[in-house]
Amino acid sequence: MSNALRTTTVGSFAKPDYLQRARNRHSAGKVTAKELDGLTRQATKEVIEVQKELGLDVFVHGEMERGDMVGYFGENLPGMRPGELVRSYGNRYYHKPVIASEVRWDAPVTVDLWRYAQSLTDKPMKGMLTGPYTIVEWSFDEHYGSRREAVLAMARAIHHEAEALAKAGAKYIQVDEPAIHTRPGEDFDLAVEAMGVVVKGVSAEFHTHICYGDVPKIYPGMLRLPVTQIHLAFKNANFELLHLLEADPWDSKKELGLGVLDVHDHHVESVEEVKEGIKHALRLVPADRLWIEPDCGLKTRTPEEVRKKLRVMVAARDEVRRDLAL
User: Fold this and answer.
1) At a CB cut-off of 8 Å and minimum separation 6, what does 256 contact?
2) Best CA proximity match to 196, nearest among 227, 163, 154
3) What is the pLDDT of residue 90?
4) Average per-residue pLDDT for the chain
5) φ and ψ at 167, to 5 degrees?
6) Domain regions of the chain by residue span
7) To the nearest 10°, the Cα dihedral for 216, 222, 227, 233?
8) What pTM does this model have?
9) pLDDT by residue (tens digit) across 285-295?
10) pLDDT at residue 244, as a whole number
């Protein structure tokens, strides 16, 4: 795998209709857990086949088992339980978890499906975790009463899950922190400290995804995060965030995940507009430290839109490699 302009995705893929129906029927007690698991694995295999077909460099398993990135851990970490439905964005809802008692880690949550997905390809498969700051921010705390205690307890639990993924063979582990800029002046230092707890002593390369929001308020402070790659949503704002890097250069020790596909738009980008964004970024970050990715998870797009958008992304990357003889 060439290190120049590596491609990957942020984690989630669109669920096929048959799986969404099965998940709804399972919730109603009409589909068994074993039947649902079989369909989840079928959908996961389809996600792997798409990535093989399109020629991505680092794969994801698609998160077919997860309804929501925070809710999933709320359902599976001891000390947490699902709460009431709340609106996430648009007309999408999730059961906002409740921290009801001391958060613990008793057994792996994500490893089994990661192993299955990795068995389907020789390409490296990212382990996918939601970060401790985001889990606490998007949950109700009925136990700790102290934001710091809750976040650090969550970080210790996620650390154990990261250790389990690394021991299973995960070379790359992504820790999503889309809520990290919610209170930049109040407890951004806490979010950085919590990430340090997650990654400490774990033998894997860590990436983090920071979603839409007031990114300028945490740049360049975000460069203190103890991870190898930081991924940002650039395409949604027509790559305007790259001006941050022009004013305050990117850390030479960090890799940048460049979001080049707007995942909240049905429009399929052209190869030329993606190439333009990549070439702009290459004036600021060397090719061996620049990753090409969608802005965010792909679960809001249809499977066909996902395929079309990713095909454009890979084609644009390949053309830039040829144009610049990378």
Assistant:
1) 229, 230, 231, 232, 245, 250, 281, 285, 289, 290, 291
2) 227
3) 62
4) 95
5) -65, -30
6) 6-323
7) -10
8) 0.95
9) 999 999 999 99
10) 94
- Where does 6-323 sit in CATH, by number? 3.20.20.210
Yes or no: say if 144 and 98 are a contact pair by the CB < 8 Å rule.
Answer: no
Quote the tokens at residue 36.
Answer: 């649902």
Tokens of 54: 């399109």
Q: What is the C-alpha to C-alpha distance for residues 274 and 70, in angstroms, rounded to an integer?
A: 30
Angle, helix 111-118 to helix 147-168, in steps of 10 degrees: 30
Q: Where are the alpha helices (DSSP H) in the chain?
A: 17-27, 33-54, 71-76, 111-118, 132-137, 147-168, 184-199, 242-247, 271-282, 303-323
Cβ–Cβ < 8 Å for 228, 207: yes
Task: Give just the sign of the alpha carbon dihedral 230, 236, 239, 245.
Answer: negative
Tell me the C-alpha distance between 94 and 4, whole Å. Answer: 38
Q: What is the pLDDT averaged over residues 189-211?
A: 97
73: number of Cβ within 10 Å: 25
pLDDT tens per residue across span 7-43:
999 999 999 999 999 999 999 999 999 999 999 999 9
Quick: pLDDT tens for 46-104.
999 999 999 999 999 999 999 999 999 999 999 999 888 777 666 667 778 999 999 99
For 20, 56, 73, 221, 275, the CA distances from 259, given in Å and listed in that order, are 27, 15, 25, 20, 12
Q: Based on the number of CB atoms within 10 Å of its own CB, is 262 exposed (0-12), middle (13-18) or buried (19 or more)?
A: buried
pLDDT at 260 over 80: yes
Secondary structure element (H or E) that encloses residue 173, with its range: strand 172-176
Distance CA 281, CA 215 (A): 17
For the record, the structure tokens of 50 come out as 């798409």
101-118 average pLDDT score: 98
